[in-house]
Monooxygenase (Sheuella amnicola), 386 residues
Amino acid sequence: MSEPDFDIAILGGGPTGCALALMLARATHRPDRIALFQSDQAASYGYVPEKDPRVLAINHGSRVLLESLKGFPNVAAGIRTIHVSQRGRLGNTLIKHTDFDVPQLGCVVRYGQLHTALRQAVETSGVRIFAGAVAEITGQDSLCVRIDQDQNRVSAAMAVQADGRPGKLADRTYSQMALVTQAKSGLPRSGWAFERFTREGPLAVLPHPEASDQQSIVWCCSPVRAAELQALSADQFSGALTHMFGERLGTLTINGPVTAFPLTLNLNHQLVDGRIVAIGNAAQTLHPVAGQGLNLGLRDAATLAQTLKPWLVNPTRSPIGDLERFQQRRKSDRQVTVRLTDLMSRAFTTGLPQIEHAAGLTLLAMDMFPALRAPLARHLLQGLRA
Ligand SMILES: Cc1cc2nc3c(=O)[nH]c(=O)nc-3n(C[C@H](O)[C@H](O)[C@H](O)COP(=O)(O)OP(=O)(O)OC[C@H]3O[C@@H](n4cnc5c(N)ncnc54)[C@H](O)[C@@H]3O)c2cc1C
């Protein structure tokens, strides 16, 4: 068989695809044999990552990784304390950075600014970028990537699906939407993030990366309620938000558009199909409660880069054994994180007083006994590392 054009083709230049490209570039002396396909500038695609309204809570482990890759944005708001509570019931807990001896538990960044920082780092890494290319894998034996549905193809020894799409029907469609916006707070508290569980779904009020008196809001609620809230005026929306969150930060006044994201859970048990492997949201999508999706995707990318390092020395041999090892190494962390966030998203919305009360007592017990709080907090901070 003739030598393929590339050793590795990465389909999707979102945060996990870019982070993987950077780690692989460091693991090989031939970064030019890695290709990254980014559809985001394709006019036909209609999605501009720089304008994505999401803000992302990045945990301490992910921040350290992104900084080491020089892909961390200049603008970020630190989280030093996380306040977790349940609306209308007893029980709350505080997780503090001092509990773990770290300067911050994590931070909040804009998706667009993270994307730009990673993208700029890839541009100087030696990786070959196909910008504006909507790529698709054709053929398994001689793996080809078809670009923009035309005859333009390149071949690769293996491919990574990092396009953010799980490629199968959802395991669970949450009857929740996430409404994302920003609000000015009357009594700002620097470095505090709040996760408030309500009967409708979790409400996260996070520091805003660009202004200390602003909060980033992720409000999960039923699709019907989301449509009602979106139809409100800014003043009415602010009133409903302050009522739902309570007075901890004074009055919350929204001052940005409200964007709705449908929420689904997907967990691909089979990450590997021959010489094709999935990472990030292409491998799993999860509820945004506790901000775990990207953190998990970055751990996928880091483990894949580490597993492929020996193969990159001699990419003429088959990568299939290494890919299967990767799948095995990622199993526990993916399962635990997906199940934990699924449980957290639903435990407080059952409408069953016994379960909601038990969930509240769990928060209370975690607040009283650090030994109960530590494993959960540590997982959310760093995940399970293989
Ligand atoms: C409301 C909300 C809040 C969230 N908050 C958090 C949080 O606080 N913390 C956290 O860790 N996670 C959070 N997440 C999850 C996080 O956004 C995702 O896990 C993360 O964006 C996944 O990154 P990715 O690179 O795998 O996929 P994506 O971000 O989807 O990027 C995929 C990229 O691939 C490109 N692409 C798609 N198809 C092709 C193709 N055929 N060819 C080439 N390119 C293609 C796309 O244009 C896109 O740029 C949140 C999600 C939501 C919806």
User: Anything to note?
Assistant: The CA atoms of residues 147 and 213 lie 45 Å apart. The two ends are 35 Å apart (CA to CA). Residues 6-52+113-169+265-343 form a domain with the FAD/NAD(P)-binding domain fold (CATH 3.50.50.60).
